[in-house]
Specification:
By secondary structure, the protein is mainly β. It has 6 helices and 23 strands. The chain has helices at 2-11, 19-31, 33-38, 43-56, 319-322, 349-354; strands spanning 61-75, 82-97, 103-111, 116-126, 131-139, 172-182, 185-192, 200-204, 207-211, 219-228, 233-248, 256-273, 278-295, 299-302, 305-317, 326-334, 361-362, 365-366, 370-380, 385-396, 402-414, 417-428, 432-444. The strands form 3 sheets. It has an 18-stranded antiparallel beta barrel. Strands 8-9 form a two-stranded antiparallel ribbon. A hairpin with a 2-residue loop joins strand 6 (172-182) and strand 7. Helix 2 runs antiparallel to helix 4 (43-56). It is globular and about 75 Å long. It starts with a helix and ends with a strand.
Length: 445
């Protein structure tokens, strides 16, 4: 009986088990625990699989994350020097529901210094031909994380590494999505039409504030496949399009604005694991768009572009190989005019503090060709202590180059509380040096 149970647990689809199946499996695992262990079956692993089902049947679940920063910034350009603030607060609400608990709801409430809003609010459900339907506001692609620094690397909780993120999918979309899982990978697609509110004026208190929208205002179509052909070889391919007249990037029309009738981006990524500790990754984006650019000094100008490309190559080495540190080596190039729907903000201290001067680019794209490289190292000394250091360089065609380097230490007080102390120095001759010291407390529950 234990042998039959072990074989059944090896092939059963836990995500489709009914309440009765869950209760039966749980009782059988408990009853035949000793016999399963005698057969060499790891009962702990089985318990984990059954635990997943129990959580699915347990009603409402809530968990959260709080980041509190104390930061000192010393730069030549005017900026507040000292700040203590809630950098991010998030609450997740989740529940499985339906006749056999086959439908799933998730909502994520984010609070920042500027607003509080639902960043995720969606439902997934089984659909035709063994597909899964997404309805609501959800993260576009999670499969792209291996290609960017900070996606799968050490200590993102305390800001250890920040790099150029996934340019297409690392953002929330209000859409209808479809997912199909195969033995070798997953295919996803979605349809959206972002809403743009270019200008909202709020009067009161003797003054007013003008808020500009940040969406693109066009039909948005996307399709992506993430495939793992062997343990060593993985391949990702996708396409994304904004289609529609009068679409734009949502920047204030009084400064610089991109308007276009359509924009297409195709990409292909390759992942090759030499062994369990060394991986080579590369991704290439090809983009075409046509439309106009509005500049406060020159007005609207035609900006049709045949193409704008971006590519990067990465060597990713785990700490298990080098024993004392992990290693991330990256080199990439971005052609001027390449548009980034996810935005360039938050892409490191230099980008977030100096890039948007109207000289290098706007929030969504570069106006000059850029070459960049990154070296990042992370050290996990034990369960409590970890350290990191990095050095980035950005080279432009005509403007001054800029560099950024940093180091930090993270202490895990307990599984729910982490502390991180980070120092970053960004150097750009155009605006001077920027020294940032930040102490971050991260609480998860």
């Amino acid at each position: 009986m234990a042998s039959a149970l072990a074989r059944a647990l090896a092939v059963v689809d836990m995500t489709k088990a009914s309440k009765q199946d869950v209760e039966m499996l749980k009782k059988l695992v408990v009853e035949f625990k000793d016999e399963l262990e005698a057969l060499g079956v790891r009962v702990d692993d089985l318990d984990e699989r059954v635990k997943v089902i129990e959580e699915r049947l347990g009603g409402w679940k809530m968990h959260g994350e709080l980041r509190f920063d104390i930061r000192n910034s010393d730069r030549e350009a005017p900026e507040p020097d000292n700040q203590a603030f809630v950098e991010r607060a998030r609450l997740w609400f989740e529940r499985y529901f339906g006749e056999d608990e086959e439908m799933f709801f998730r909502a994520r409430l984010d609070n920042t210094r500027t607003n509080t809003a639902w960043q995720q609010f969606y439902v997934t459900m089984p659909f035709f031909a063994d597909t899964k339907l997404y309805v609501g506001k959800f993260l576009a692609w999670e499969e792209m994380a291996p290609y960017y620094l900070g996606g799968d690397t050490a200590m993102p909780e305390t800001g250890g590494f920040v790099g150029l993120d996934d340019f297409i999918g690392d953002r929330q979309v209000e859409a209808l999505g479809l997912e199909k899982a195969f033995s070798m990978g997953t295919v996803r697609a979605y349809l959206a039409h972002p809403w743009v509110n270019h200008q909202t004026t709020i009067n009161g208190g003797g003054g007013h504030a003008t808020i500009y929208g940040g969406n693109w205002g066009a039909w948005e179509l996307a399709l992506m496949g993430a495939f793992q052909f062997t343990e060593q070889f993985g391949f990702d391919i996708g396409g994304h399009a904004f289609i529609g007249d009068n679409a734009d990037d949502g920047t204030p029309p009084a400064t610089n604005m991109i308007g276009f009738s359509n924009m297409w981006t195709l990409w292909a990524g390759l992942r090759f694991n030499f062994n369990e500790n060394i991986a080579f990754k590369g991704i290439f984006y090809h983009q075409q768009w046509n439309g106009d650019v509005f500049n406060a000094a020159t007005g609207w100008q035609d900006a049709d572009r045949d193409s704008a490309n971006h590519w990067r190559l990465v060597l990713d080495v785990n700490q298990e190989l080098l024993k004392f540190t992990s290693l991330w080596l990256e080199y990439g190039q971005m052609k001027g005019g390449f548009m980034v729907p996810t935005g360039l903000d938050g892409q490191g201290a230099m980008f977030s503090s100096t890039l948007y001067s109207g000289v290098v680019g706007n929030s969504y794209g570069m106006v000059e060709d850029m070459k960049y490289w990154r070296i990042a190292l992370g050290q996990q000394w034990n369960e409590k202590w970890a350290t990191h250091l990095f050095y980035y360089g950005y080279n432009f065609d005509t403007m001054d180059d800029m560099t950024e380097w940093g180091l930090g230490v993270q202490y895990t007080y307990n599984p729910s509380v982490k502390f991180g102390l980070n120092y970053v120095k960004a150097d750009w001759d155009r605006l001077g040096d920027d020294h940032i010291i930040r102490f971050r407390t991260t609480v998860t529950f």
